[in-house]
Write a structure and sequence with these properties.
Blueprint lengths: L1 H17 L3 E16 L2 E16 L1 E2 L11 E2 L3 E11 L2 E5 L5 E5 L2 E7 L4 E4 L5 E7 L5 E5 L3 E6 L5 E7 L4 E9 L3
Antiparallel strand pairs: 1-2, 2-5, 3-4, 5-6, 7-8, 7-14, 8-9, 9-10, 10-11, 11-12, 12-13, 13-14
Length: about 180
């Protein structure tokens, strides 16, 4: 009976050894930021996990040579960002926190517990950005509600409907390159 059980265990371990045909590299970067403002002190924890997976393939798999060369295969990169603001954790596809410029004025977009908030250099909260189901954002400040999105260059584009002219106006917050 012992021999049968040991034989099954040895067989299962040998299957596990043969099944490893991928190179997997995982990197985790954790950033802790403490922000002090008029509302108090807030702790922001950002955890970025990047996983690279590459299949292992041999150049001449059928040859009788003992040492075989590896064939170059594409690397699949999976990136996941978790952000914890005031104890609430959420997964973010792309972190858009940065400085943006509109009409020579600098604005900061930073994560909050439900989306993003936009502030000016005087630390006055100007607007909120909330993500919709189709990767756009609802921009809301005291007297304006707009639809926003990020273009390929990372700029924030706001589209606002003007009732008086029955037109849509565009505003472009350019990503500040520092």
């Amino acid at each position: 009976m012992k021999t049968i059980i040991l034989g099954i265990v040895a067989f299962l371990f040998s299957l596990n050894i043969q099944a490893q045909n991928q190179n997997v590299k995982t990197e985790v970067k954790t950033t802790v930021t403490t922000v002090k403002d008029s509302e108090g002190e807030k702790k922001l924890v950002k955890k970025e996990e990047v996983q690279e997976i590459q299949n292992i393939e041999l150049k001449d798999a059928e040859s009788k040579v003992l040492n075989k060369d590896l064939k170059e295969t594409p690397v699949e990169v999976i990136s996941k960002t978790e952000v914890s603001v005031d104890g609430l954790t959420r997964v973010v596809d792309v972190d858009r926190s940065a400085y943006y410029i509109l009409d020579g004025q600098k604005y900061q977009i930073s994560l909050d517990k439900d989306g993003y908030k936009m502030t000016n250099p005087n630390s006055k909260k100007l607007a909120l950005l909330r993500k919709t189901s189709n990767n756009n954002y609802i921009y809301r400040n005291n007297n304006k509600i707009s639809l926003g999105y990020f273009d390929q260059d990372g700029n924030l584009i706001l589209e606002t409907y003007d009732e008086k002219t029955d037109k849509i106006t565009l505003e472009k917050f350019s990503l500040a390159k520092e």
